[in-house]
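Input record (one chain):
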Amino acid sequence: MNNNNPIARNFVAVDVEWATRDQMICQIGVAVVRHGDITETMQWLVQPPGNEYDETLFRNHHIRPEMTESAPTLEELWPEIRPYLLSGETWAHNAASAEMPAFRKSLGEYGIPCDWLDIRDSKELFQRPDCDGGNTLAQCAMAMNIPFDETTHHDALYDAEVLAEMLIRYSEGYRPKWDDIPETAEQLRKAKQEKLVLKMGEFENHEKKQKEAARPVVENGMIDLFAERDNSIFHVDLFAELTSSYEGAQPQVVDVFDKGDKMQKEGDEQVDIARLDTSENNPLRNKVVAMTGAFHISRKEIERAIEAMGGKTDGMTRNTNILLVGNRNVGLPKLAKYEKQSAKRNVALVVGDDDLDALLYGDGKKFFA
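The corresponding structure, as predicted from the sequence alone:
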């Protein structure tokens, strides 16, 4: 190992996923590299303390409590996992803020010391002058000409194997080519967001422009069907940055579409009726709920949940108490109506899949604080 090639020939790539915001581990993946080849891979599901999860993390790794309720704890698995982390130099992507604190906190729950654990950070490696950039695992992998599957990302073993391949190529002298990175869906989204963030007050004005542009061009008393129009009005990608109406909520960018746009398929997950609060004091009791956009749960299932909790669904009217706003395919007209109604009275805004889950399964009262 030298300064120009800081990667040993034998190393271990590790990735962890956690169940809670305080980084209690629920999955570990390792890929063992010997002399430039991945020779062994291992993956463990880990039961976090109390088998507790933050629901907002489900969509990252898709691991749920029922998957780990019979899994061993990290205390039970540690004698099996520890030798892998001692078998060679250990690497993780973003180790400084992910793997290292996750191991310290999770092992600390059982009083297991890990002062000896040293995980090198490949994110820092890709900031070196010979790499000149890179941030996420996806970006770095694609810059190293390694195909990256976003749908499998956040599976601990998949991410560990991708990292191992990245480090093998680096050790062989390959360096990232940032100009060749294909844009991921998330990168495209952020790029479009930077170009245009449509604020709430501009919705109605945008609709007026559409209607004006849609009118036939009349010249000398004749309708010209082929006259040039500002087609950008019809094809522009619109985004709205919305903030939920409870204290501490974070702004979320939602994909806004116009009436004529084709709506993508909504989510197909079902509501867990057994987890709903159907008591008289639940936050949806006697509430009128309007919806726009697509969630991970289908609209039919959301309506079923609202009815089970004693609420009802309707359009955005003067009687609406809550507006559910999906992360994609959100309609401009309904947001314009929300803007008018919320100026007169309090209408709770529930934005995105995480907020929806919190309303249905968690602390729904916070949206009305």
